[in-house]
Every structure is written in C-alpha cells, then in structure tokens.
Design brief:
mainly alpha; two-stranded antiparallel sheet; elongated
Length: about 70
C-alpha cells in the first residue's frame, strides 16, 4: 500500500467513524459539532476537511448536505 493509499484509508476510516456516530450538526451560530460529542468542535472541522479531501459531502444530522446545495 502506498503512502497516498494509506492516507486515503485513514481519512475514510475517520469519516466513517464520525458518520457512524451521526455525522455533524450546526449550532445556532453555524458552528459545526459532532453529534457524538457536541463539545469537540475541532473534530467537526477536521471531519469537514477530510470529507472535502475525499470529494464527498459531510453527513449532517442524518442528511448528506449541510446547506442544501452542492459545493
């Protein structure tokens, strides 16, 4: 497995873990937080970055699209 393949697997594993716990939600101030741990805001930021790197939409509180639009 190449270094790139290992990084992609790590991103997919990370995203899969957040997805399995419900994805993320957005607070009233539009700050994302993981459904599984509402206080771990940095994790939600990393999740959104990982999703973007993989070319997929984040799972937002049971949906696929946080804004109802495509990026």
């Amino acid at each position: 497995m190449t270094k790139i393949q290992k990084m992609e697997k790590a991103l997919k594993d990370f995203v899969g873990t957040i997805d399995a716990t419900g994805g993320i939600r957005y607070g009233a101030d539009k700050t994302p937080y993981p459904v599984g741990d509402e206080e771990w805001i940095d994790l939600a930021d990393a999740y959104e970055t990982a999703c973007a790197a993989l070319g997929r939409k984040p799972k937002v509180d049971g949906t696929d699209d946080p804004n109802g639009t495509e990026d």
